[in-house]
Write a structure and sequence with these properties.
Elements: H1 2-22, H2 29-34, H3 36-42, E1 48-53, E2 58-63, E3 81-87, E4 90-100, E5 105-113, H4 115-167, H5 181-232, H6 236-268, H7 280-294, E6 299-305, H8 316-332, E7 339-346, E8 350-356, H9 379-385, H10 391-401, E9 405-410, E10 416-423
Parallel strand pairs: 6-7
Antiparallel strand pairs: 1-2, 1-5, 3-4, 4-5, 7-8, 8-10, 9-10
Length: about 425
C-alpha cells in the first residue's frame, strides 16, 4: 500500500514538473503565481505543494484540505527525488524537483503525510484484533460444546461403571449414533460387559451345577456310612452292600472332578496355532479302531471323503480327545447294534468331521444348549452311564481354542449329528 501511495505521489510531482518545463526556459515568478489554480487541481487534498527559490525560501504554498503546515529542512537536489521520512511522529513522503530558467531557479517541493495509510493500517489492526478476539471467543464456545459432546459419553461410561459396581453386570452404556472413537469405545465396553456377564453367569451356573452333582453322591455316601455305623458292624450283608455303593459313588465323584479339571485346563491352556498340526485321517482311524474293539455291539462306519491328505490346525492329542468324547456320547445314547457313522470331507477353507448316531436325539429347542456345562438330554440315563454333561463342553472349548467350529444337528428320523470344522494348516 505504501508503494501505491508513493507511485501516486510521484505521478503528481511529475505532472507539475512537466507543466513548468512546458512553460519554456523563460518562465518567470509571475507565471508560477498564475499557475496556482492549476496546481490546486493537480494536487490531491492531502498534499502540500511549495515552490522554493534557490536558497530554499518559500515563494508559493498550496496546502491541501485540513492539512497543517509542516517544517521540513531544505535539501537542494539536482534531479527529481522522492523519500519517505518521519517527522513529528508521522510518516510522510517528501518529493523535490528542480526548476531551471533564465528568469527563475528554484525547486518544487511536495509533502504528503501518510495519514490515510496509517488510518487504514490502524483500522486494519483493530479489525484484525476484533476478528481475532471474536474468532478466539467462537473457537472457545465451539471447543466448549465439542468438549462437552466428547466428555458426555465418557461421563455416562463412568456413571455406568459406578452403577455396575452397585447393581451388577447387567448395566450398559447408551450408544450414541455417531461413527467416532467414543461410540466405538462404548460398543466395545458393552460387548465386554456382555461377555463378562455371560462368563459370570456361566461361572455361577457351573458352581451351582457342580454343587448339585456333588451333593447326590455325598448324600449317598453319608447315608451308607451312617447305615454302616448303626447296623453294618454286625450285619455282613449291609456292610458289603454299603461298601460297594460307597465305592461306586466315590468313583463317580472321581470322574466328575477329573472332568471338571479337564474343562478348567481347556479354559486356561494356551495353544501355539503356528505349530499345532494333526492328520485327521490317522487320528480318526485310531479312535475308531479302539472303539470297535471296546464296543463290538455297535457298527462304526467311516466315510473318508477327503480328496487329499490334509493337515489341520490342532494338536493330535486334542483331536483324539474330541473324537473320543463324540464317539463315547454316540455309544452312550444309542441302542445296541445301532450304526455310528463318521465322515471326513474337504471344504474350501477347512476339513469337516461329522459323527452321526441313531440314538435318542436332542429336542430342537435344546440343540444350542448341548455345549453348555452339565447339559444332559436324559439325566437318568446319563447318571446310569456315568455321564455328567461335561464332555461336549470340553470338546467345544478345545475346538474354539483352535479357531474351529462345532455344531449339533438332528439326525432324522432319530439320532444326533455333531459336526466339527478345523482350519487347514499351511
Amino acid at each position: 500500500m505504501v508503494d501505491e501511495e508513493e507511485n501516486n505521489f510521484s505521478r503528481v510531482l511529475d505532472e507539475i514538473t512537466v507543466f513548468f518545463k512546458q512553460k519554456g526556459p523563460n518562465i518567470q515568478l509571475q507565471d508560477i503565481f498564475d499557475s496556482r489554480d492549476l496546481m490546486k487541481q493537480i494536487a490531491e487534498k492531502d498534499q502540500t505543494i511549495r515552490i522554493l527559490d534557490r536558497q530554499g525560501d518559500q515563494v508559493l504554498e498550496i496546502r491541501g484540505e485540513n492539512e497543517s503546515a509542516f517544517y521540513i529542512p531544505f535539501q537542494p537536489v539536482r534531479e527529481r527525488a522522492v523519500t519517505l521520512i518521519e517527522s513529528e511522529g508521522k510518516q510522510m513522503l517528501i518529493g523535490r524537483s528542480p526548476i531551471r530558467s533564465s528568469q527563475f531557479n528554484g525547486y518544487i517541493e511536495m509533502i504528503q503525510p501518510l495519514s490515510r495509510y496509517e488510518k487504514i493500517m490502524k483500522n486494519l489492526f483493530w479489525m484484525m484484533t476484533i476478528t481475532g478476539v471474536l474468532a478466539l471467543l467462537i473457537s472457545a464456545i465451539i471447543g466448549y460444546f465439542m468438549a462437552r459432546s466428547f466428555v458426555r459419553p465418557l461421563n455416562k461410561l463412568s456413571e455406568t461403571m459406578r452403577s455396575i459396581e452397585r447393581k451388577g453386570f447387567h448395566e450398559r452404556v447408551e450408544i450414541v449414533k455417531a461413527h467416532d472413537e467414543i461410540s466405538d469405545l462404548s460398543q466395545i465396553f458393552n460387548k465386554m460387559m456382555s461377555e463378562i456377564e455371560n462368563s459370570f453367569q456361566q461361572q455361577q451356573q457351573f458352581v451351582e451345577d457342580a454343587s448339585h452333582e456333588l451333593r447326590t453322591p455325598i448324600q449317598v455316601l453319608e447315608g451308607h456310612l451312617a447305615l454302616l455305623n448303626r447296623w453294618g458292624k454286625k450285619d455282613p450283608s449291609i456292610l458289603e452292600e454299603s461298601l460297594q455303593v460307597s465305592l461306586e459313588e466315590l468313583e463317580r465323584v472321581k470322574r466328575l472332578i477329573g472332568e471338571l479339571l479337564e474343562l478348567s485346563r481347556a479354559d486356561r491352556e494356551k495353544f501355539d496355532l503356528q505349530t499345532a498340526r494333526a492328520n485327521p485321517q490317522k487320528v480318526v482311524d485310531k479312535v475308531i479302531r479302539d472303539f470297535k474293539f471296546l464296543h463290538q455291539e455297535h457298527t462304526f462306519l467311516c466315510l473318508d471323503e477327503l480328496d487329499y491328505e490334509a493337515m489341520v490346525v490342532i494338536m493330535p492329542r486334542h483331536l483324539e480327545q474330541i473324537m473320543i468324547i463324540l464317539l463315547d456320547n454316540a455309544v452312550k445314547y444309542s441302542d445296541k447294534h445301532s450304526n455310528i457313522e463318521i465322515k471326513l470331507v474337504n471344504r474350501d477353507e477347512d476339513v469337516m468331521i461329522e459323527v452321526k448316531d441313531e440314538g435318542i436325539g436332542i429336542p430342537e429347542d435344546d440343540l444350542p444348549k448341548v455345549f453348555d456345562r452339565f447339559y444332559r438330554v436324559d439325566k437318568a440315563r446319563s447318571r446310569e452311564k456315568g455321564g455328567y454333561g461335561l464332555g461336549l463342553a470340553i470338546a467345544s472349548k478345545l475346538i474354539q481354542n483352535y479357531n474351529g467350529d462345532i455344531l449339533a444337528l438332528r439326525n432324522e428320523p432319530a439320532g444326533t449329528i455333531i459336526r466339527i470344522s478345523l482350519k487347514y494348516a499351511h
